[in-house]
Amino acid sequence: MNRVWKKVMAAGLATVTLCSAAACGSSVGASDVPVVPADGDVTIRLNWWGGDARIKATEQAVKGFEAEHPNIHVDMEYSDWTGYWDKLAVQSAGGNAPDVMQMDELYLAFYGSMGSLLDLNKASQYLDLSTMDASLKSMGQVEGEQVAAPATTAQYGVIVNNDVLDSLGLTLPDTDQWTWNDFEKFAQQVTERSAGQYIGSIAPNNGYGLQLWARQHGESLFKGNAITISPKTLASFLQLPADWAKNGIEGNAERWSENTAASLNDTDFGKGKQAMMITQATMITPYAEAAGTQNMTVVPMPQVTPGAKTMYLKPGMYWAISSGSQHPAEAAMLIDYLINNKQAGAVLGTERGIPASNDIRKMLAGSASGTDKSALNFVDDIQPTIGKAPAITPNGASELDKTIVRYQQDVVFGKRKPLEAAKSMIAELQESIDFAS
Amino acid sequence: MSSFSEFGSLVKKRHKPKDKPTDTKVALGFLAPWLIGALFLSLIPMVDSLVISFTKYNMIKPPQFVGLMNYRHMLADPRFINSLTVTLIYVVISVPLQLVAALALAVLLDRGMRGLAFYRSAFYLPSMLGGSVAVAVLWKMVFGSDGLFNALLGLLGIDTSMSWIANPDTANWTLIALHVWQFGSPMVIFLAGLRQIPRELYEAASVDGAGKWRQFRSITLPMLSPIIFFNLVMSVINSFQTFTQAYVVSGGTGGPSDSTLFYTLYLYQQGFASLRMGYASALAWIMVLIVAALTGINFALSKFWVHYDD
Question: What stretches pass through the bilayer (chain B) (predicted)?
Answer without folding.
Answer: 34-59, 80-109, 121-139, 148-167, 173-194, 221-240, 280-301
